[in-house]
Amino acid sequence: MVKYRQNKGGYPMAKRLHIIFLGDVKDRGYRFFIKQKAIELGLKGYCILNEQQQIEVEVEGKDKSIEEFLKFVQKGISLQNESNAFAIETFHDLKGFKTMQTDIV
Q: What is the DSSP letter of 8?
């Protein structure tokens, strides 16, 4: 487990997000933009097209970067898609990802 300083509530000053994008997200460029934004914010994790043909993302990093990434997701990854439906889970335990991996280049 990665160690970060703790805030007053006892939680690390870092988070992990698990996001599933719902709807028609294949071939929309989402994975490219997600990976780029995560790298820009210093987040680590992965972004893949799962067996259900949904984009699955798991990222972890400092609270500020996670919050900025969450705003990016909520605003809409791609203007090509009319809907921006997703499910998000937030965790305070980290997995210790070393890089931002994806199943695209």
A: T
60-99 pLDDT, tens digit each: 999 999 999 999 988 876 555 555 688 999 999 999 999 9
Residue 61 near residue 41, CB atoms below 8 Å: yes
Over residues 19-63, the pLDDT tens digits come to: 998 876 666 678 888 999 999 999 999 999 999 888 999 999 999
Instruction: Report the alpha-carbon distance of residue 15 to residue 31 in Å, rounded.
Output: 21
**CATH 3.30.70.100 correct for 14-93:** yes
The full set of domain ranges for the chain reads: 14-93
User: pTM of this prediction?
Assistant: 0.81
DSSP class per residue in 22-40 = -SS-TTSSHHHHHHHHHHH
Please state, in angstroms and rounded to a whole number, the distance separating the CA atoms of residues 105 and 88. Answer: 25
To 10 degrees, what angle do helices 63-75 and 30-40 make? 150
